[in-house]
Amino acid sequence: NKSAKQQALEAIRALGRLPNFPISRARMRLLVEVPTGEGSAGERCWRDVLPLISEIESEERENEHLRATVLVEPANYKRIGELVARETKGAGTVHTLSLKELKEQEKGYL
């Protein structure tokens, strides 16, 4: 007497426990830009954001400005955006580049 959604969630959990059937959430690709400089709020902000990032694809620093392309779990997106906005007082930005980023081996299952 379970709903279709509940049955699907249970099936996904059961499949995830199988050794040769890895299931993980697709990550989001973001562009994070913060001002930097000695003791700046942007540097502190970046240190606070780092634990929420799954992978840093690229990181460029020039003219007291940090620009990084990162992969994050969807659950961390809102928190990263709030941290950057609050800590940099609106000087930093977070842009969504891709809503789902899959690893190469995962693309074969699609």
Q: Strands, helices and their partners?
A:
Layout: H1 4-16, E1 27-35, H2 41-49, E2 53-61, E3 65-72, H3 77-87, E4 93-101, H4 104-107
Helix pairs in contact: 2-3
| Fraction of residues in β-strands | 25-35%
Helical content, roughly? Answer: 25-40%
Q: Say how many strands there are.
A: 4
- Ends distance: 31 Å
Largest sheet: 4 strands, antiparallel
Shape field: elongated
Q: Tell me the structural class.
A: alpha+beta
Query: Would you list the SSEs in sequence order as H and E?
Result: HEHEEHEH
Mean pLDDT score = 86
Task: Describe the protein's architecture and organization.
The chain has 110 residues and is of the alpha+beta class. 34% of the residues lie in helices and 32% in strands. It has helices at residues 4-16, 41-49, 77-87, 104-107; strands at 27-35, 53-61, 65-72, 93-101. A hairpin with a 3-residue loop joins β2 (53-61) and β3. The radius of gyration is 18 Å and the shape is elongated. The model has no long low-confidence stretch (mean pLDDT 86).
What distinguishing features does this structure have?
single chain; 110 residues; alpha+beta; four-stranded antiparallel beta sheet; 34% helix; 32% strand
Summarize this structure briefly.
With 110 residues, the chain is an alpha+beta fold. The chain contains 4 helices and 4 strands.
